Amino acid sequence: MNLKEFASRIGLSATTVSRAMSGYPEVRPETRARVLEAAETLGYRPNISAQRLATGRAGAIGIVFQGGGRFGPHSSEFMGGLSTRLQRDGIDILVSTVETEEEEIAAYRRLAASKRVDAVILHTPTCRDKRIALLQTLGLPFVVHGRSEAKKPFAFLDIDNFGAIAEATRHLAVLGHRRIAFINGDTASTFARDRQDGYCAALAEHGLTPDSTLMSHGEFTDETGFRLTQCFLGLPSPPTAIIAGSMMSALGAMRAIRVAGLSPGTDVAIVAHDDVFPYLSPENLVPAVTTTQSPIRAAGERIGDMAVRLLQGEEPDSLQEVWPVELIVRDSTRPVLA
Amino acid sequence: MNLKEFASRIGLSATTVSRAMSGYPEVRPETRARVLEAAETLGYRPNISAQRLATGRAGAIGIVFQGGGRFGPHSSEFMGGLSTRLQRDGIDILVSTVETEEEEIAAYRRLAASKRVDAVILHTPTCRDKRIALLQTLGLPFVVHGRSEAKKPFAFLDIDNFGAIAEATRHLAVLGHRRIAFINGDTASTFARDRQDGYCAALAEHGLTPDSTLMSHGEFTDETGFRLTQCFLGLPSPPTAIIAGSMMSALGAMRAIRVAGLSPGTDVAIVAHDDVFPYLSPENLVPAVTTTQSPIRAAGERIGDMAVRLLQGEEPDSLQEVWPVELIVRDSTRPVLA
DNA sequence: CTGAAAGCGCTTACAG
DNA sequence: CTGAAAGCGCTTACAG
């Protein structure tokens, strides 16, 4: 049933029905109530494509993941939060996966040109990110999950990656650790650079010099955590503590420590950054893992919120947040063995 | 730039341009080439909302997750596969999250009435699933990930859950295990029922009687696996083997075994169902875990494919598949200790 | 507060 | 093989 038919059935004009249903003020309350009730009863819903064509709004927000393979646990938590928030405003999420950066760029061009989305969520930016420049040029509104540099201001939400890893490093240094290894993410991205800066800054505070053999990076997976830790443990002078960029890496690190006949927490201290996976709680690991904690799901919700505001006309430079990260000391970080 | 402007710029009618761009046959190859090239150069893309309104197709497929919180690692792998496949046909994925079953039902009604999607992916069906009946009534095409009973046939892809768990159970029985525990999923769903049936059938083959204290269920998370295993190990006569419904549960189970001062694989054998998470490989665990393996990502791709076919007019009853599951014996299943 | 009419940007019978 | 025109189902100035 379309608007015309519905309107005639309840003896009103299409105009009035349309206005009543979109919550415009210039309709009498009784009329609106009557329309809404009739819509419910008769099962009328505006055709979304027609609505979009008429308003020029897509009613959807896009997010593209590079490497279908990289759509992992972090993405899913983030998406869960994003979707929860956008649902409130009836905004759809349009998910695309691409393989390369060029494809990603092409995807944004396509989304913009075909007016398929009203805005886009960009994640894991590099320090100077092409994609940001592109979106600004295209005039496609966007919110960045992470930080970057650009001439024009843009909306973003980031966590305090510098502070998080600095505090973790400091905590270990205070416990007497001198050889602290660090498993970082892809070093092209801002978050990895910030974390590394935090790590180095805290080392310096304690008179320690960064040792490149103790700094490694890769995907945040169990497997990579395992491999990198095996390398660390094979060094002539292995670390007594490891900072892992994700709970996933921490799982692998702990496994490698055990395989080497050592005891995680006792022989090698562990701190992990915890994005808070409901199915993988650091308290439940053995030993309970000290973490820098910042729920990625909450970030997803907030970014959804920021996107909505952006579409309502708020200025990008008023939509910029950096969230603090909490260090939660548990059982996996003990004083260095004498 | 819209069609009219673009067409006039290249000196053709809107009709011809439209036909050339949608790949209709009745356009001269040279004309088509010229149009496509000009579109590329001038950056013209059809407005997707207008296209949809005119064709009556939404160009999107919906999937709804109950409990934003349940959007976990299984969902994300599945989505990765689905998205990879649908991208090929330019079909968007529309993700919704809801909290209750009523909300989910309402979501389908909304999607159908507003013509927001052309089809829907339904997952984790129960044995007689209301949602299936609803979608059939609404006339909204759908593909089910899993199996169910219904009067009218429908498209589905399921794995052989019965066979998978039966084989796992058999394998353990052959190794001499007599007390085999089973961590199952939500028992309302078909897959859990099938798995339980497989478990019981294989026990029976070996003259074993199911013991309800050894059959437990819950979410497929590390935490639940941990708790349930702690219960098992606290029994007067604890199991010598555990079958876990997911790698996530297996992680928790192994942790509980260790916490109890026992050794996974040696003291308590472990088999896990492995949906194949790229970041959590059973070979890399210690001990390497015996699994029933069936990649959920591949299932997502295939279901995307089936959805496309369904929209092309293939009959639901020609789109029904059950995938075999492979038992991969590794180190975590050893003969029972004397 | 309500309605008639134009317009959003496409597709697609129909005619040539 | 190409084009003029109607139609998809809404929204929204404009007029009353």
From TrEMBL, chains A, B:
Pfam families: LacI, Peripla_BP_1. This is Substrate-binding domain-containing protein. SUPFAM superfamilies: lambda repressor-like DNA-binding domains (SSF47413), Periplasmic binding protein-like I (SSF53822). It comes from the Bacteria. The lineage of its organism: Bacteria, Pseudomonadati, Pseudomonadota, Alphaproteobacteria, Hyphomicrobiales. CDD domains: HTH_LacI (cd01392), PBP1_AglR-like (cd20010). Residues 1-55 form the HTH lacI-type domain. The keyword NAD does not apply. Keywords: DNA-binding, Transcription, Transcription regulation. It comes from Shinella sedimenti.
